[in-house]
Amino acid sequence: MPLKYKLLTLVSAVLLMSSCSSIYMPGVPNTPMLTTKGEVAAGAHVSLRGNVNINTAYAFSDNLAAMVNFGAMNSERSKRDVKHNYFEFGGGYFKTFGPEDNRILEFYAGMGTASSKRVVRNFDDDVLISTDIYDADYTKMFVQANYSSKKTSKVRLLGVDFGLNYGTAWRLSFASTKDFKLNGVPQINEDNIFIEPVFFTRMVLSDQFQLQYTSGSNIGLRNRKFLNAGHSVFTIGAVINVGGKPKSK
User: Fold this and answer.
1) What is the value of pTM for the model shown?
2) What string of DSSP letters covers 135-166?
3) 99-108 average pLDDT score
């Protein structure tokens, strides 16, 4: 095999291993689309890998809100086990605008904690040759901006018209590990800054209940060995918005 192809194969393998051993896992950013005081938003989202995220938010005034988010993943496979959970909370500002007051801007900031454990098994001709165990907790702070619209487009499925809403969230996360161990041996803690753009589509089943598809990426701004951008966001879920007071006309 020519040298350049060997180098390409080696680089690809290193990148793949780095992705597999990534400690950081982004959750689904909270996009509550709040509009009025007293409104409650809640959403549940799950990825194909079994990563479950629960997001909640409450508007305690016509422009201020608080949020709580948490998630968990527990996956056991022949080559890799993943156990991950996180909790975060925050608060921020929201505002509706536009000719029909159906566009929404939201700005949030918050902090959280997470724990991550990964067991990576390496095989050669179906024979186990090594096992690496990555175990770490990390803390993070985040700032986030959401733009969404309740202006509804239409899609027709099985002879029924459903409304579609769209939105995007841009999150900047600052993460730092603590008590990081590799195979039981303490390691140097790492930190990183992640840019996390997310886009979502909601299918309107009623004024209160919608289905949501979310897709997004994860970009690490610092070159780190373990706390890197090894995971993206692809989930399906359901969201509810209840309890909001009608805006005065």
Assistant:
1) 0.85
2) EEEEEEEEEEEEEEEEEEEEEEETTEEEEEEE
3) 92
